[in-house]
Amino acid sequence: MFRHPLRSLLSRPVLFTHTRTPPPSLLPLSVPRPAINYNPNYYSTRNYRYRTMATWTNLIRFIAEEDGQEHLGDVDRSQYPDVGLSIHDGTPVTARVINGTVFDGVVTDKVLTVARLLCPLPVSAVPIIRCLGLNYRDHAHEAKMPIPDVPVLFIKPRTALTGPHPSKIVVPKAVQDGTSDYEAELTIVISKTGKDIPEDKALEYVLGYTAGNDVSSRKSQFENSQWSYSKGFDGSAPIGPVIVREGVLDPHNLGIKAIYNGQTVQDSNTKEMIFSVQHTISFLSRGTTLEAGTVIMTGTPPGIGAMREPKIVLGDGDDMKVWIEGIGTLVNKVHYEK
């Protein structure tokens, strides 16, 4: 019988719940849900700077067809509602070039065509990847486990980072043991360095949101509780395809799915998250510096391969997708290292 490795750590009732009321959906896009939960306060006084500066809202990093060089770009989502699927399906995608970095970039009028989509963050810009375990109520119910009182933290090294198609999920030779698994996750990117961040200031430290897949080796994870080892291999943290600027979407009311070889295997909503984005950032910064560029993977909903009957294992050549409402689809093939 499957026994979740957090079971022995969690025995008390939840002390924190997220009660934020999500805003109404605005500006629907052509994605597999009827509407996108855009934040109506995005164009409020609080976000006036986004209206008066050429600041990106949907950032990609890519190689351009025109010059073969790496660029940052801002994608028009009214033209390309799902950049990841468009690129995967061979649809030409253009973007307005961003001058600067992901943290200070300004959108120009120059338009280039995407030849290859890259991870939206270069590895050099990411100091660490912090991850939460058991952060969805429906996943806790599936695992028959108590709701945790505080976020459960583990880390991945930045070398685990990879991007969307044509980048691949890499299963190293050391763990080709029939237990490789997927975890669809809303992923936060930190915009500026902070420590002991109060919850009411936490969103000021968020650059934006993207889709992520916390690829895991369950045998290594469960046998010896080696979370960072079993989840930290090179290529085990694909993210993308875009980073959506904080304030554009409500991160607490987004559909989230994992799709394995065309079959939807996870299907939930981020409103099921136990700990809000604000609480997570505040907690992770207690006595610890959160550096700009830190990536935070916020946990996964029910339906992971290890808990399904029959179990699902990522095999060489398998197709894996993570879809998040308003962000798009992270597409990867699985590759077994030779």
Which helices and strands, and how do they pair?
Elements: H1 48-52, E1 58-64, E2 70-74, H2 83-88, E3 94-99, E4 106-118, E5 129-133, H3 137-143, E6 152-156, E7 161-162, E8 168-171, E9 180-181, E10 184-190, E11 206-213, E12 216-217, H4 218-224, H5 227-231, E13 237-245, E14 255-260, E15 263-269, H6 277-284, E16 295-297, E17 319-324, E18 328-336
Parallel strand pairs: 5-16, 7-13, 8-18
Antiparallel strand pairs: 1-2, 1-4, 1-13, 2-3, 3-4, 5-6, 9-12, 10-11, 10-16, 11-13, 14-15, 14-17, 17-18
Describe the overall structure.
InterPro entries: Fumarylacetoacetase-like_C, Fumarylacetoacetase_C_sf. Residues 129-334 form the Fumarylacetoacetase-like C-terminal domain. GO terms for molecular function: metal ion binding; oxaloacetate tautomerase activity. Keywords: Metal-binding. Pfam families: FAA_hydrolase. This protein is mainly beta and 338 residues long. The chain folds into two domains: 40-118, no CATH class; 121-336, Fumarylacetoacetase-like, C-terminal domain (Fumarylacetoacetate hydrolase, domain 2, Alpha-Beta Complex), CATH 3.90.850. Helix content is 11%, strand content 31%. It contains six helices and 18 strands. The protein has helices at 48-52, 83-88, 137-143, 218-224, 227-231, 277-284; strands spanning 58-64, 70-74, 94-99, 106-118, 129-133, 152-156, 161-162, 168-171, 180-181, 184-190, 206-213, 216-217, 237-245, 255-260, 263-269, 295-297, 319-324, 328-336. Strands 1, 2, 3, 4, 5, 6, 7, 10, 11, 13 and 16 form an eleven-stranded mixed beta sheet that branches. Strands 8-18-17-14-15 form a five-stranded mixed beta sheet. The protein has a two-stranded antiparallel sheet with strand order 9-12. It starts with 47 loop residues before the first helix and ends with a strand. The model is unreliable at 8-36 and 42-52 (pLDDT under 50).
